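Appendix B. Chain record.
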Amino acid sequence: MIAVSVRSVAHKQNVHSWRADPKEGGVAVVNGIHAIELVSSWFNGDPKVLATSASSNLFGSPVPEHVVCTLEFPEGVIFTMQSYWSPWQEPQGLNQGDWSLTIDVLVTEGRMLWSNDSLHVWEREGGQYVKTFDPSDLFLRPAEMALKSCKGGTPAVTFAQALRATEIADAVLAAAPSRAEDVVSPQHPKNLTVD
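Structure tokens predicted for this chain:
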């Protein structure tokens, strides 16, 4: 794998209540965490935060509402993420346009782009295909999985995976040289490095 790029946009009419609480960490921890959790599960070792920018200019809340970051995993794979709360509803997206998620994976053999309810694959030799999926409720399915886990089933995400993703998100926020760093000051995890 060469690089992974994720764009996660959640439609919000306003940012208030627990989302606006600086202890919650803003969009990188509330929404971007899912992308961080997924991508970090593909690699061993702790990523290096190469660059981060955070702002609260969309709604003016006391937390980062827009975060862009670039990380590098020990294998040399670059992970770029843009996550923000949008006052505009996406024309297409998951959960009736409330959330738009795009994951673009670049490998030597080709490219794979998952965008909301479709997957587009390009092969190096020129082949390509597109697969579409039926829309699903992104809140109902995890809730069902959580209930199964409470009844003794295997959780979809282990505590160790959740903790690792949270530590990475905290390191991303700690590295942000923006106005948001005055508001959010998570403890920088010892095992993550920041350049």
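Further analysis of this model is presented in Appendix C.
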